[in-house]
Amino acid sequence: MSNLKYSRQREAIKKQLMQRNDHPTADMVYTDIRKEYPNISLGTVYRNLALLSELGEIKRLVTGDGPDRFDADTSPHNHFICRKCHAVLDMDMEDISEIKERAEQNFHGVIESYSVNFYGICEHCHQTKLS
Predict the structure, then answer these.
(1) N or C: which end of the chain has fewer CB within 10 A?
(2) Which domains are present in the chain?
(3) What does the pLDDT look like over 67-109, one tens digit per residue?
(4) What's the gap between Cα 97 and its chain centre?
């Protein structure tokens, strides 16, 4: 952010994301950040999340049917997305980085990064269905 003007609100949004592991939506971030900045607008939250994502300081997770989610953990890791409640969970699993090498075998461009999402029904939704 060398040429970017400092913003207390942007820093507060980033800090809030770093304290969470539930991969919140922009609306969830907005609801929480209003406790510290009651006059902040939803548009400001959306713009700052987009900017932080473009700068690589956070990750934007496109979940398909549900709203985009945001993750302060920019290290390579995989996610599980529940088809019922749209929860996004970090997957604790062995490294699968060989997938990038396999993808590059028949691809003539440059693959800079990748993300892997697993889809299904989360434990909570599955247990609710069984009850």
Answers:
(1) C
(2) 8-130 (1.10.10.10)
(3) 899 999 998 899 999 989 889 999 998 888 889 899 999 899 9
(4) 19
By DSSP bridging, strand 59-61 and strand 78-82 are unpaired
- Asked whether the beta carbons of 61 and 69 are under 8 A apart, the reply is yes
DSSP type of residue 6: P
Using DSSP, how many helices (H) and how many strands (E) does the chain show?
5, 5
Query: What does the alpha-carbon distance between residue 118 and residue 124 come to, in Å, rounded to a whole number?
Result: 16
Rounded to an integer, what distance in angstroms lies between the CA atom of residue 102 and that of residue 74?
Answer: 22
12: left (phi over 0), alpha (psi -120 to 50) or beta: alpha
Contact assessment for residue 79 and residue 118, using Cβ atoms and an 8 Å cutoff: yes
Q: How many C-beta neighbours within 10 Å does residue 71 have?
A: 22
Burial of 17 (0-12, 13-18, 19+ CB in 10 A): buried
Dihedral (CA of 112, 60, 22, 121) sign = negative
